[in-house]
Amino acid sequence: LTAVFNRGAFSMLVEAYLDKARSHAVAEAGALLIVDADHFKSINDRLGHDCGDQALKLIASTIRSQLHGADIVGRIGGEEFAVFLPGADATRSFLVAESIRLRIREAEFAPGGQPCPLSVSIGGVAFSGPTTYHHMFRVADRHLYKAKSNGRDQVSFESPRSRLSGEAAGTFH
After folding, report:
1. Is 15 designated active site?
2. pTM of the predicted model, to two decimals?
């Protein structure tokens, strides 16, 4: 439907990268983003599942348009996507997340000529050094919850610097 990896393939590819990172074959840095479509159930309820599918396709293609080279995207739930940015530092990772959020917000989605604004909430974590997919997912998911509970249509992000210095991780919109 969305032309991105499914949950199983996505997690397998991320784990393979992390295994290579542990053996120092690739950079021990990167980020995981979890992208969740805001109020998606209401799109399905108001406009029908075909329109919901169109929205998912638009969100997936918009995410893909903001990625480069080795970046990986997968659909990990009904209206939830994950993005892995191998080798990316915290700054690039946050900029990619914010770019995804803005591009989806700006996307024109008007099924049957009826405008229907889309937005996403994004939780993310940048890592530097050994980590596991499970750990990154837990942290990114916690930040996704924070972005949603703070009003949606925003990015909540944790970087290695914020953990080391004790600074609060940022939430931006």
Report:
1. no
2. 0.90
